[in-house]
Design a protein that fits this description.
alpha+beta, five-stranded antiparallel β-sheet, 1 helix, 47% strand
């Protein structure tokens, strides 16, 4: 199940995706108690900053996305990723193709 929330004035969006339990990914520098990183968790992502980048004579939109992995135990892992608009567009196209195949 997917849920999306957004605030129209700031342009920030949050996508929450419940995920089935799996072996957790941990940071090599930070090793939490194994009991804290087991079981179901929720991923959330928020666009925290947008901008325009210039590289090799080309201009493109870029987004800073803050990701949070929150376990039912209360333990959280957070990180940021940077993606171009075209990455989101490509993902959207792939999702549309998959959904179309499921519906047919």
């Amino acid at each position: 199940m997917f849920s999306a929330e957004g605030s129209g004035s700031s342009g920030n969006s949050t996508l929450t995706v419940p995920v089935l339990p799996q072996v957790p990914a941990t940071s090599p520098t930070e090793k939490p108690d194994r009991k804290l990183v087991q079981g179901p968790f929720t991923l959330s992502a928020e666009i925290v900053k947008t901008g325009v980048a210039h590289e090799k004579g080309r201009t493109f939109g870029i987004y800073a996305v803050s990701v949070c992995k929150r376990y039912e135990t209360g333990y959280e892992e957070r990180w940021q990723v940077y993606r171009r608009y075209s990455d989101f567009y490509d993902l959207h196209q792939k999702i549309k193709e998959k959904v179309k195949l499921i519906i047919e």
